[in-house]
Amino acid sequence: DVKVTQSSRYLVKRTGEKVFLECVQDMDHENMFWYRQDPGLGLRLIYFSYDVKMKEKGDIPEGYSVSREKKERFSLILESASTNQTSMYLCASSLPFKGQRETQYFGPGTRLLVL
Amino acid sequence: AQSVTQLGSHVSVSEGALVLLRCNYSSSVPPYLFWYVQYPNQGLQLLLKYTTGATLVKGINGFEAEFKKSETSFHLTKPSAHMSDAAEYFCAVSDRERGQGAQKLVFGQGTRLTINP
In chain B, at which end, N or C, are there fewer CB atoms within 10 A of the end residue's CB? Predict the structure, then answer.
């Protein structure tokens, strides 16, 4: 089974702090994604990566950056946390598009509270 | 650009009744369509997906969905609801315009399903 793990389930940070959210997958997937989930808005894509050191902006990249130094690990960085970044953050991974093999597998999520 | 609309943010049904969760999509290319389920305090789990071929897709836990191109819909159904079906359900469409590399998903707003005993 594919396993996607996230470093923390719950996190409380102060405004202005630099925050790191870590995601690790164990299935050698090329693609990795970071979403935030807010009530009534569904999931919105922040950033994604299709290879080591490669990244692309999603729909809401402002205030975030990412790092992918190893294939299995994808980090989301909040350079200076703000209260409007309080949210649930979900990581996902998938194989490259080859017809059928594009299902995204999700981690359990990190619920971040910024005070 | 793709988009997804889920009709009804909350749906409540009685145990044993039909479950119908509605999803309409917009896509400029033939879509890949997905339904994911999220149980409380968990990540998303794939229920089923449509890529090509048969338009009626069967998934896990007795759910199925039918792709109707003429109606741009991909509604999720289950003949008889169970208490364990209580969760949030997300419909998503895949960006197939990229020939290779990462296929982005565009999600709907989600529908919270409540099952009444």
Answer: C
